[in-house]
Amino acid sequence: MKRLIYYLVLVLVFGLGLLGYYKIEYPKLPREIKSLNDRILVKNEKLISAQILASQLDLVARLIDRNLAISSKDSLAQDASLPFLDDMTSLLQQHKIVLIHLEPSRRRVTRHDYVRTSYEMMIECNFKEFGKFINDVEKSDRLITLEEFTVENDLSSIETRKNRRRFDTHVFEVKLSTLTLIKHT
To answer: From CA 88, how far away is CA 65, in angstroms rounded?
Structure first.
């Protein structure tokens, strides 16, 4: 009988010890793990933000490099800028768009730190090609703004012998402007 009492007391002490551990010590561990997980999440968010900023800085550096001129007399800032014309002709060829005419506009804005040059262009293509072309123009490394465009879709112009073109193509008049940054020394 004494032995049974010892076993019962021993089981009771052991049970109370487990209960005390479960109530006092065990809840501290999940709270500590949760706080460590929260800190890890915050650090991961900061790391991802830093990686995004690093990749964006490369894009910004390339954008500035492609649009920065030494002075307003630099070829990049001139009315008929060869880099711009090369970019436009390669995009037009890439999308198989017919260039009817492209010339600088008389609207040129020269400020202390930038030059905005406007261009008027007339192209012949369908709506899908035009959409892809405009999308690529806006994605280019040059700072190009689409000012406005108009669509000439008059059926009589299709039927004349002089202006024979496919039925699904249209003539688009597009006004673009480029922005060239001027470096100050």
So the answer is: 18
